[in-house]
Structure formats: structure tokens, C-alpha cells
Design goal:
By secondary structure, this protein is an all-alpha fold. About 70% of the residues lie in helices and about 0% in strands. It is built from 23 helices and no strands.
Length: about 375
């Protein structure tokens, strides 16, 4: 019974929490309304859920009258767990990268490793980063001796390390992927990870050079197109809008030939990713208004829903930055909460996203759902 009651409390709408604590404080609706400077009808609608409490400043006022911490109204009143505020496992990945020259004493057959590599890709694409970090060390060990499997294993490692704010370690993993590559296409796919790591390090000119050179070595449309997009984003990072647009246009010419679900090299390259790159170019250049317009166009595209969850959530975090740049806090909160809904780890573990949540939680007024996320991951008092 206690567990059931706790579950009910945790899932209770905020209006019902207000009513519950008002009764505990032995206050009538009229008494609460008077102290808030509101009408009794307003309190009644809040408690019944007819009127939404979507402003953090209002929640703070109610909490002050009820002598509560606002977090009590926002959700379960408990300190955030370690799993909610950080991810363990990076050091184990670092150790696995350090022993790259050692072969496992008992080699694992390729046909046993391949399914684990495929599962790791799915785990990454679904933004299950905690689970991925747990399996990467053993996966890297097992993939040694199997060049075709070692390249994607290193790529996955580099990609998740970029996400988690470890670009130096990501660059190391990506460079290992290039070294392990046995043919031009594998080397080109590995260079995608190299350019992502270099961009995360702020080395945009190096990323531009690497991406352009690798794009010229492969005839695979999706890999070549992805490298051209990475080159375009690197050019945008250098402040070169004309060059960025030219490279993105070249990628767009390839994208229509890649609008299928067949993606053997895990690029997710299609016309929608070109639209997302145009959005990110505008954001990198500093034109938030254009970025918002391109975001709205991209999410209406037919390919949006077919993108991996990780890709969509990462874009929504960037879209929140764009909305914030235009001063539209409501829209910024909406897309950030949507990112948290579809891929919580993308918002709660990525340093760039956590910084954004903290910034938005300090806004006046702050959206209630953003304040809830901030409280859950330990970014408020």
C-alpha cells in the first residue's frame, strides 16, 4: 500500500499537489487565493487542472504561501541520484583505449562480435548512453583483430564521448578508427568521427580540411554527403558562411539519392539531415531568427520522424538554443522538454544541454517543466 501511495504521489498533477498541501496547511481555497492576490475561481481551476501552472515564478509564489520548497510542487521531493547527474564509465573506456595494442588472450570470433557492434549502434541511436558506456570497454577488447568491426566500435566510442564532453578522448578513438580502416570507405566513415571530435575541440579549420579530403576519397553517396555536411559546419564554425552554404549545397545534391532506410554505414544521411545542417549553420553563424525558421521547416519534413532518436533530441537541444537567442522562452522550453521526453540522456548528461537547462531555469519567468528537469538533475538548490 505504501508503494502504491508513493507512486500515486509521484505521478500526481501539480494542481492536485497544490490542493493536497493547501489542505495540509488548513487553508481554504479562498484563504489561498487572498494570500496570492488571486480569485477563488483561479485557485479552483488550478487545483482541478483546468488552468495550467506553466510559470515557475507563480509556482514559487504558491510554494512560499504554502511554506514549501518549489520542488515539492514540481515533483517528487528527493535529492537527485548520481545516475541522474553524471555518467560513470568514461574512465573504463579510457582504460580500454589505452590497451589498444594488446590482443585479448582468447580471441572472440567475428561472428560473435558483429551482433554486439550492431546492438551498440542501436543503443547509441536510442541515446542509452549509460548502457553504452558499460559495454564499450569489453566491445573494444573483443573487436581487436577484426578490422571491419573495430572501425565502427571506435566510431561509436568517439561519438558518445563527444556527447559527454570528452572531445580529446573522442579524437583519440576516432583517430584509432582511421588507423584501423582497411579500405577508403571505412577510412572515410571513420573521418566523420574525427571531424565531429575536432569541431567539439573548436579546431574548425582542421575539421574542414579533414572532411573535405576524406569526401574526395569515397564514392559512397551517404558517406560523402555526411562528410560534406561536416565540412560545411566546420566552415560555419570558422565564420565562413559562403563556403558553408556551398558545401551544404553539394551535400544536398547527393541527399535525394540517399532517401531510403538502407544505411549500412550509420550516417543517417538524407534530405532532412541537410535541412538540419542548414539550421545548425545559421545557429553557428549567430543568426537565431534564420535558425528558428529552418528548424520549423526541418521538423515538418517527411524524414524527420525517421531520424534516430539521438539525432532528433540533439537537434531539439540546439533548437532550444536558437529560440532562446530570439527571446522566445516559451518555444525554447517546449522543444527542450520534447528533447527530454524522447531521449532524457541527451538533456541530462550532455554538458551543453545541462548548461542550457541551468540557464533557462534562471530565466524569469522560468517554465515549470524546465524547472522540474533542472531540479531532477541537481541544477537548482
Amino acid at each position: 500500500m505504501t508503494g502504491r501511495r508513493l507512486l500515486d504521489t509521484d505521478e500526481m498533477p501539480i494542481g492536485r499537489r497544490v490542493a493536497r498541501w493547501r489542505v495540509r496547511r488548513r487553508m481554504t481555497q479562498q484563504m489561498l487565493a487572498d494570500r496570492l492576490g488571486k480569485s477563488k475561481s483561479w485557485v479552483d481551476k488550478v487545483e482541478r487542472g483546468v488552468r495550467a501552472l506553466d510559470r515557475y515564478s507563480v509556482i514559487q509564489e504558491i510554494a512560499e504561501v504554502l511554506r514549501l520548497d518549489p520542488a515539492v510542487l514540481l515533483g517528487p521531493h528527493r535529492p537527485p541520484s548520481a545516475a541522474e547527474t553524471r555518467l560513470d564509465g568514461v574512465e573504463a573506456v579510457r582504460a580500454a583505449l589505452a590497451r589498444y595494442h594488446r590482443r585479448p588472450p582468447t580471441p572472440v570470433p567475428a561472428d560473435q562480435v558483429a551482433p554486439h557492434v550492431a546492438h551498440a549502434w542501436l543503443t547509441y541511436q536510442h541515446a542509452h548512453y549509460a548502457q553504452l558506456l558499460r559495454v564499450l570497454p569489453s566491445l573494444l577488447d573483443a573487436a581487436h583483430g577484426h578490422r571491419d568491426l573495430l572501425v565502427p566500435a571506435y566510431r561509436i566510442t568517439a561519438s558518445v564521448l563527444v556527447k559527454l564532453g570528452e572531445p580529446d578522448l573522442a579524437w583519440l578513438a576516432a583517430d584509432r578508427a582511421v588507423t584501423a580502416a582497411g579500405n577508403p570507405t571505412h577510412a572515410a566513415t571513420a573521418t566523420i568521427a574525427v571531424t565531429q571530435a575536432l569541431r567539439a575541440l573548436g579546431r574548425h579549420r582542421l575539421a574542414l580540411t579533414a572532411a573535405r579530403a576524406a569526401a574526395d576519397t569515397t564514392t559512397h553517396d551517404a558517406v560523402r554527403g555526411t562528410l560534406l555536411l561536416q565540412a560545411g559546419l566546420a566552415a560555419a564554425g570558422c565564420g565562413d558562411r559562403r563556403h558553408a552554404d556551398d558545401l551544404t549545397d553539394r551535400a544536398a545534391a547527393l541527399a535525394d539519392r540517399c532517401a531510403t532506410d538502407d544505411d549500412p554505414h550509420h550516417t543517417a544521411f538524407n534530405p532532412t539531415t541537410v535541412l538540419l545542417a542548414r539550421f545548425l549553420t545559421a545557429l553557428e553563424i549567430g543568426d537565431s531568427t534564420e535558425a528558428v525558421a529552418r528548424h520549423e521547416s526541418a521538423i515538418r519534413a517527411g524524414g524527420w520522424s525517421r531520424l534516430p532518436v539521438e539525432h532528433r533530441a540533439a537537434h531539439l537541444v540546439d533548437a532550444a538554443r536558437a529560440h532562446l537567442g530570439t527571446g522566445d522562452l516559451t518555444a525554447a522550453a517546449r522543444v527542450l522538454v520534447e528533447a527530454d521526453r524522447i531521449a532524457p540522456a541527451e538533456v541530462r548528461y550532455r554538458p551543453v544541454a545541462r548548461t542550457l537547462v541551468a540557464e533557462m531555469a534562471r530565466c524569469d519567468p522560468a517554465a515549470a517543466d524546465v524547472a522540474r528537469i533542472a531540479a531532477m538533475i541537481g541544477l537548482t538548490r
